């Protein structure tokens, strides 16, 4: 026997179903995210973008993200904190050194000489995390979710070099004030050039040398216009993920916890991947095997001398910390005091 429902009940059921669908759709949250530049290469391509494109799956949250690399947006990478504060985006893949003019406290994360290797870089990032988070929340209504590295930033030159001191009299592309002061100390002329413009600047002779990570250099074709690489790490190129407090406060406490766990997972993946890329890219740039992640070139690999290592390590106390502290303390009275209380002990500095 078939049970027939009255037509009025069917109409009510249909109306209820129609109302449920939009309600479920309305329950989904939409965020806009700024990514790393496409030009920076494999971390952006293989780790960051897939994470944001599968955001709901990776976080277990009903959140859809409109993710755009910054070099496709018409926004400068030096303006990330400003556009976040203005409420134009919800999540940012924060370029630390590029935004340090707007917030000098950020640069305490990556002073020249402070993170000569990955293990030290992790310790510095963990020690300084809460200081940056508090500052970003106070000044920009932005919460820090994680910190990760592009990896050691090394020197590429289109003129022969055998040691760091050979940059004396050369024009060197830099990306923050801290690095600029160090290059001045060793006799070079620092020239601020955006990453996207560096290949052309090398090609045209605007700069003689430039500093970035070996994998990013490979992806951007720097070895086409340079001849030598000196794999001496000046900085770890630490970057971060941050969310506007408006977007963060939209989430319930359990959702916030899920989001933080997902970003912890992503940043942990990037730390491991970055270290794998670093050595592989150094090989690729000089045409050696194994080379699995990049294109082979024929750069001369300059051996790092103990004297050069010592020069960079000594930069923390001689140049990078005093120069940065003077600038940072002007805008944030406790800036260097907090760094000395949190990061200095990790580095064995008194």
Helix content: 40-55%
Number of helices: 13
Order of helices and strands: HEHHEHEHEEEHEHEHEEHHEHHH
Q: What is the fold-level CATH name, i.e. the topology of the largest domain?
A: D-Maltodextrin-Binding Protein, domain 2
Main structural class = alpha/beta
Q: How can the largest sheet be summarized? A: 6 strands, mixed
Low-confidence stretches: 12-25
Chain-averaged pLDDT = 92
CATH class of the largest domain: Alpha Beta
Protein name: TRAP transporter substrate-binding protein
Signal peptide: 1-25
Family: Belongs to the bacterial solute-binding protein 7 family.
GO biological process, one term: transmembrane transport
Question: Would you mind describing this structure in some detail?
Answer:
- By secondary structure, the protein is of the alpha/beta class.
- 48% of the residues lie in helices and 15% in strands.
- The protein has a six-stranded mixed β-sheet with strand order 7-6-8-5-9-11, with helices on both faces. Strands 2-1-3-10-4 form a five-stranded mixed β-sheet, with helices on both faces.
- Helix 2 (42-53) packs antiparallel against helix 10 and helix 6 (177-185) packs across helix 11.
- The longest helix has 33 residues, at 253-285.
Question: Which helices and strands occur, and which strands form pairs?
Answer:
Layout (H helix, E strand, L loop, with lengths): L6 H21 L1 E7 L6 H12 L1 H5 L3 E7 L10 H6 L5 E4 L23 H23 L1 E8 L4 E4 L13 E4 L2 H9 L3 E4 L2 H10 L4 E4 L1 H6 L8 E3 L7 E7 H5 L3 H33 L14 E2 L4 H26 L3 H8 L1 H4 L3
Parallel strand pairs: 1-2, 1-3, 6-7, 6-8, 9-11
Antiparallel strand pairs: 3-10, 4-10, 5-8, 5-9
Helix pairs in contact: 2-10, 6-11
InterPro entries: DctP_fam, TRAP_DctP_sf
Pfam families: DctP
Protein name: TRAP transporter substrate-binding protein
């Amino acid at each position: 026997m078939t049970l027939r429902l009255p037509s009025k009940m069917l109409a009510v059921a249909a109306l209820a179903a129609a109302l449920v669908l939009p309600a479920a759709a309305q329950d989904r949250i939409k965020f806009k995210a700024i990514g790393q530049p496409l030009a920076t290469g494999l971390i952006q391509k293989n780790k960051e973008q897939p994470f944001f494109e599968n955001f709901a799956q990776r976080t277990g949250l009903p959140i859809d993200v409109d993710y755009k690399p910054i070099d496709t947006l018409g926004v400068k990478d030096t303006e990330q904190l400003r556009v976040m504060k203005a409420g134009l985006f919800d999540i940012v893949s924060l370029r630390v050194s590029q935004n340090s003019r707007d917030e000098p406290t950020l640069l305490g994360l990556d002073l020249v000489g402070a993170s000569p290797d990955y293990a030290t870089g992790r310790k510095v990032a963990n020690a300084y995390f809460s200081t940056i988070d508090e500052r970003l929340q106070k000044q920009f209504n932005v919460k820090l979710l994680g910190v990760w590295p592009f990896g050691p930033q090394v020197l590429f030159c289109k003129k022969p070099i055998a040691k760091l001191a050979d940059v004396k009299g050369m024009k060197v592309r830099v990306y923050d004030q801290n690095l600029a002061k160090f290059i001045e100390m060793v006799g070079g002329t620092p020239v601020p050039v955006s990453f996207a413009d560096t290949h052309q600047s090398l090609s045209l002779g605007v700069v003689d040398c430039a500093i970035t990570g070996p994998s990013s250099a490979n992806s951007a074709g720097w070895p086409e216009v340079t001849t030598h690489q000196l794999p001496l790490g000046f900085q770890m190129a630490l970057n971060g993920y941050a969310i506007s407090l408006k977007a963060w406060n939209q989430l319930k406490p359990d959702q916030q916890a899920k989001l933080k766990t997902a970003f912890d997972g992503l940043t942990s993946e990037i730390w491991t991947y970055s270290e794998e890329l670093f050595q592989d890219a150094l090989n690729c740039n000089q045409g050696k095997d194994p080379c699995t992640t990049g294109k082979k070139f024929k750069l001369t690999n300059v051996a790092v001398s103990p004297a050069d290592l010592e020069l960079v390590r000594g930069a923390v106390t001689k140049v990078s910390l005093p120069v940065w502290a003077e600038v940072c303390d002007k805008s944030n009275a406790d800036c260097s005091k907090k760094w000395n209380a949190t990061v200095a002990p990790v580095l064995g500095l008194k």
